[in-house]
Model the fold of this input.
Amino acid sequence: KTRKDNYSKVIPTFDYGDKSNWSGMNANSDRAIKKAVIMIKKHSMFINGKQYNRWIDDCYMLMGKANFFKLEHSLGVNQLKHVSENSEKQYTKDEAKIWMIRTYNEMGEYAESGTIIRGIDKGGVDKKLLPDYYAVIADYHIRQKEWDKAIENLDDAIKYSKKKKFNARLEFIKGQIYEIKGENKKAYECYGKVVKARPEYVMEFQARINMARTAENSNNESLRKTLKKMLKDGKNLEYLDQVYYAIALIDLKEDKKDDAIKNLNKSLRNSIDNQNQQALSHLKLAELYMEA
Done:
């Protein structure tokens, strides 16, 4: 709930929240681990090299996930590896491998992530796991700035996912990647899908702002009207600097340099604590004054 995405960068594929607040989960994570350990000690039926209690691998899985959020990544990945190698349930083995990739991605161990990805038979992955399977591979490629492969896997994740909030997030990321690639038309289309999905307000707001940045000239008028309405909405008081900046970008597309300068100055005057936006507005103003 306290998480705030930094929309000036490609947002994370998975909505883990703010890492600085993960410690707040430690008590619950420790309790889950403690109960899983008790379960394993008291009820494991490992006889002649075979585990006869089908819940034991689930206990190791829970410990791996709990240690992920405790930032005990090395410990967690070993517990997940145990599941991937010893579970007799293919679904559980694949889920463990997906969480191993998540963990290695967080650790920056991309060689390890790549090894696991290549070792998974995607044709045998259960359909329920496919959204996370493709999303974690997209995350792997995004972190290494392999944009085309990232988009390909984001598309597959969206294809198999039925979660609107998750899909909206992935569409937003696609839009950001297309912007990086200089493909503004495709970026605009992605942001439009985000708005139609009606995600959380902040993401919807950012999608509308990004649409103004990536729009073709034929869409300028409707976008200008939308942005002016956003100026009057009380929910946007802390975002007025971004709205004025977006209007200034439309001004520049229409060669209205004086209007753009006025709106950039309004952006700065209405900035509360968004240093990224202040920097963008100052930079754009400096560029315009240099051209004068």
